[in-house]
Amino acid sequence: MQIRGGSSKGVYFHRGDLPQDMGLREQVLLAAMAGVDARDPRQIDGLGGAHPLTSKVAVVGPSLRDDADIDYLFVQVVVGEGRVDITPNCGNILAGVGPYALERGLVAAADTETLVRVHMENTGKLCELTMQTPQGRVTYAGDARIDGVPGTAAPIICNFLDVAGSVCGALLPTGNVLDTIDSIAVTCIDNGMPVVVVRAESLGVTGYETVETLNGDDPFKQRLESLRLQAGAMMGLGDVSRQVIPKVTLIAAPQCGGDVCTRSFIPHVCHSAIGVLGAVSVGTACVLPGSVAQDMLQNRARNGGRLSLEHPSGECSVELTLDGPPDAPQVGKAGVLRTARLISRGEVFIPE
Ligand code: NQM
User: Fold this and answer.
1) Which of 39, 42, 45, 317 could lock 82 by a disulfide, CB 3.0 to 4.6 Å apart?
2) Is 239 exposed, middle or buried (0-12, 13-18, 19+ CB in 10 A)?
């Protein structure tokens, strides 16, 4: 099935429909998304959309764990490079996993709302998805709006349970709330997604630029990549030159009534919105005393609650439940509203 999950779009496969051999499975996924030439940046011969947000795959199956209903592996098909990356998770594609599980009969729908417990295989963490299922059927129509997606749709509530250190093993993988790289202050954080948070002004930009302006600024992107490569090593991720994590998010004072303004790089292209788990990580940085983002909140939402992150096409709200003392808060749960839509279902033909 092709499903829009949040502000991303992906091809969702049943685990049992794919080859069991991992190497062969990778070849099949690359061919499905890009066709004969997996390095074609236009992905003209496959289902991929020639952009990181539309070159995504979900592999879904019944969970092998007792505490989950569904296993979900996220696969980023790296555009133009003929390879996949399974190190990151994707909270947008995750939103489509609930409808997929219901459509494929992997989970039975309850009468009005259905909760699906998803084991996110990339990180080993859990997320509870709550979907609208009137009369026991998944519905896509509704009045929830998420920025970065036109129109409205049925809400899907994603409640991430304990995602701190999901990839790097610790919320603050360098051991510090603040580090300095190339004389620039950064906060390296992993609350579901490894992200390097940096003040836009310290990189010589405002943080209010358009996606196109930032994408077209090659010298700026080189500085960003130098920062990212060093941060990746400091976060224990080794040489990240061929990995899509960590991401980098620029922050600036809010302009439209939110709590912080963001521009996120995934990692070489500026996101037209912000990734879900990326937003959870950046939101968490905002509530951590001593971080580069600590004075963004101007005392609002310091104790958790709803935090609004402005991004190039609107805003994304995350709901943080904080535990622990105010000077050393820990995020217990992080909730995000998403929507999804089934676009198509069928067969994909793999070139011989
Ligand atoms: O951070 C973009 C997206 C994502 C990932 C990316 C995501 C997340 O917008 O959880 O959703 O960071 O590549 O789909």
Assistant:
1) 39
2) exposed
Instruction: Please identify, by atom number, the ligand 1 atom nearest to the C-alpha of residue 192.
Output: 10
Distance CA 9, CA 38 (A): 18
Q: What is the mean pLDDT of residues 179-186?
A: 97
Backbone angles phi, psi at 130, to 5 degrees: -115, 120
pLDDT at res. 285 = 95
First to last CA, the chain: 22
How many other C-beta atoms are found inside a 10 Å radius of the C-beta of residue 260? Answer: 26
Do the domain assignments include residue 147? no
pLDDT score of 68: 98
Structural domain for 65, as ranges: 2-139
Question: Which is nearest to 113 in space by CA: 127, 102, 123, 97?
Answer: 102
pTM, two decimals, is 0.90
Residue located nearest, by CA, to atom 4 of ligand 1:
275
What is each CA distance from 177 to 74, 101, 285, in whole angstroms? 28, 39, 8
